[in-house]
Write a structure and sequence with these properties.
The complex is a heterodimer of chains A (347) and B (283). Chain A is α/β, with parallel strands linked by helices and 347 residues long. In chain A, 41% of the residues lie in helices and 20% in strands. The longest helix of chain B has 42 residues, at 2-43. The chains are: A alpha/beta (347), B mainly alpha (283).
Chain lengths: 347, 283
């Protein structure tokens, strides 16, 4: 009997505490790629202001779906919504959806060839490897890019993502830009029909495949390659220079793209201009309702976004993201200023 | 000579088969041993008081706990139980006590089908039925999904347990002029309740270990929340998130969360044992 009383008391206590728990909370869901910095931001922001932003990494596709259905206060994605998706969301939610870039990330080409480091690759060679046209590590095309390296006569094992992902989108977007054959045969998307290779689930899956398989080549987000201590290739950019993926080279890529950035900030920055630009990188976006119904939430969101564009950027590099270039952050602020609550401007 | 030959041949066959069944039994235990070995050896490093009373820290800062997830899991199985236990026990009672008709057959069949439905499908149903109309992820939606998952286990255990109650007890009750509903409630359910409690425990444990149906119902929460109208944290979703992150620190915490989940279920079953312990010694 006693135990039952205790259990009843616990439930009573919980229900009372839930009434007391009336803090402002905004819920969001979406891309896994920026989840780490978002969790850092939201923790910092809660300590500063007490407002809770609860973010759950369910994937870019999930983020777009939830913002379309109106089950979240904000969404997140690595690949921008297309016009059809935007129209559907608008007809369901009766408001436009804003894309606000938050940080940038690089996709690196990770490889595992014993005795080889400092590999150089260019777009067409990479596309040919992923098309299954280059099969050996000592192929003439790779040798030509790496005259100093002693490449073994080993088979290339291609590793790619088996699940839908923003990382695949950035990678295939790049390959489509640099290889006509890739564009017509495979195309770009969060999941495509890979001509060759083994599939791994998630960045960790691909990183694991590359790490464990001699002769493997795959693509992962920079953070995963660094954390798992996997070598990654220097990529030849549009200007003809081999560039390593670093925060500077990714920011340089964004600056190259910022000059002709569209007003809605939906843009691909793969294969950009600029001497020091790393060619396989992309933005990640928060998806925000242009007009929100809850004024308190709208105000909190606007305040947070302004903080994220400014001070929040300083957390990026330690977590392996590249901060936004100043010019892009400025454009974001302009778009943030258009957010309204029930049609009224937010001060 | 001939009979001796058959004797040894049979003896040999018997020994070989015995050995094979022993090996099979061993093979069945080995994964369990590995599970315990890995969760304990890898999870124990983070197991401290903080893990139970502190909140998760952002990535890069060592330490922190999962107080919100532990409470969240308890709330979720609490809601699930509040739905699943009454429905399950009453359905089980109905199936075994009231009626022997086509409807009973249909219910029994559908319960079996329900127990075979993958939990993620139940999650999708809860998403469509609760999350979309409410326009909100919530602990309530997660609890409903878990409640649905508990129903078949509890129903079938209740039914089987009630079937074990001797027929003479029913007849004795009826012979004393006790109405049927009272006999069922005061005699049959009372006699079978330990077995039913075991079924309830199985249902609750299964629910506590589910991840898939929570991903798009309860969603998850990095903060302290006990409001059932808001998204809520749970141990299983934390394990899923942390185990696949690139950060060593989070991978470690995922193991600890797994260990805590196992401990939680063990404590739950211990509590049930104590509650159902007989007041009178049987021998």
């Amino acid at each position: 009997m006693k135990i039952r009383t205790i259990i009843a008391a616990i439930f009573l206590a919980l229900s009372v505490s839930s009434i007391a728990n009336a803090q402002l909370q905004l819920n969001g869901a979406g891309a896994t790629f920026p989840a780490v910095i978002y969790s850092k931001w939201f923790d910092e922001y809660k300590n500063m202001t007490g407002v809770q932003f609860n973010y759950q990494a369910i994937g870019s596709g999930g983020g777009i779906k939830q913002i379309t259905e109106g089950t979240v206060d904000f969404g997140a994605t690595d690949g921008p919504m297309n016009d059809k998706q935007l129209n559907e969301a608008k007809s369901k939610q009766k408001t436009d959806i804003l894309h606000i870039p938050t940080v940038m990330g690089a996709v690196v080409v990770a490889y595992n060839v014993p005795g080889v480091s400092g590999l150089n690759l260019d777009g067409t060679t990479l596309a040919d490897i992923f098309l299954g046209k280059i099969l050996k590590w000592n192929d003439a095309a790779i040798k030509k890019l790496n005259p100093k390296l002693n490449l073994p006569n080993a088979t290339i094992v291609v590793a790619h993502r088996s699940d839908g992902s923003g990382t695949s989108f950035i990678f295939t977007d790049y390959l489509s830009k640099v290889s006509k054959e890739w564009e017509t045969k495979v195309g770009k998307g969060t999941s495509v029909n890979w001509p060759v290779g083994l599939g791994g689930k998630g960045n960790d899956g691909v990183a694991g495949l590359v790490k464990q398989t001699e002769g493997a080549i795959g693509y992962v987000e920079l953070a995963y390659a660094v954390q798992n201590k996997i070598a990654y290739a220097n990529m030849k950019n549009k200007a003809g220079k081999f560039v390593e993926a670093t925060f500077e080279s990714v920011s340089a890529a964004a600056e190259g793209a910022a000059k002709n950035m569209p007003a809605d900030l939906r843009v691909s920055i793969t294969d950009p201009d600029g001497k020091n630009s790393y060619p396989i990188s992309g933005f990640t976006w928060l998806l925000i309702y242009q007009n929100m119904k809850d004024e308190a939430k709208a105000r909190a969101l606007v305040k947070f976004l302004k903080w994220a564009m400014g001070k929040g950027q300083s957390f990026a590099t330690e977590l392996y993201y590249a901060p936004l270039p100043k010019a892009v952050a400025k454009m974001c602020e302009k778009n943030i200023a258009t957010i309204t609550a029930n049609g009224k401007k937010i001060k | 000579m001939n009979s001796k030959y058959f004797y040894y041949k049979r003896k040999l066959t018997s020994s070989i088969m015995m050995l094979l069944t022993f090996v099979a039994a061993l093979a069945a235990i080995i994964p369990l041993v590995f599970i315990f070995y890995y969760t304990i050896s890898k999870g124990v490093t983070y197991l401290n008081l903080d893990f139970f009373i502190a909140m998760p820290k952002p990535v890069g800062e060592p330490g922190g706990g999962m107080a919100n997830a532990i409470v969240g899991t308890l709330i979720l199985i609490g809601i699930g139980g509040a739905i699943g236990i009454p429905v399950g026990v009453m359905t089980g009672t109905y199936l075994s006590e009231f009626g022997n008709n086509k409807f009973v057959f249909l219910v029994r069949f559908l319960t079996d089908v329900l127990s075979g439905i993958p939990s993620i499908v139940v999650g999708v149903v809860a998403y469509t039925m609760v999350v979309l109309p409410m326009k909100h992820f919530s602990a309530l939606a997660g609890g409903i999904a878990l409640g649905i998952l508990m129903i078949p286990t509890i129903t079938r255990t209740t039914e089987e347990m009630i079937k074990l109650v001797p027929h003479s007890l029913r007849e004795a009750g009826l012979a004393l002029g006790i109405p049927k509903w009272k006999t069922t409630l005061a005699i049959i359910l009372r006699t079978a309740w330990k077995g039913i409690a075991t079924g309830v425990l199985l249902g609750l444990s299964r629910a506590a270990g589910e991840t898939a149906p929570l991903l798009f119902t309860a969603l998850g929460n990095r903060f302290w929340s006990t409001n059932i109208g808001q998204p809520i944290a749970s141990l299983t979703v934390y394990i899923y998130d942390y185990a696949k992150s690139p950060f060593e620190d989070w991978n470690q915490q995922a193991w600890t969360a797994a260990l805590v989940l196992i401990l939680l279920i063990s404590v739950l079953s211990l509590v049930f044992r104590i509650i159902t312990r007989s007041k009178y010694k049987t021998n």
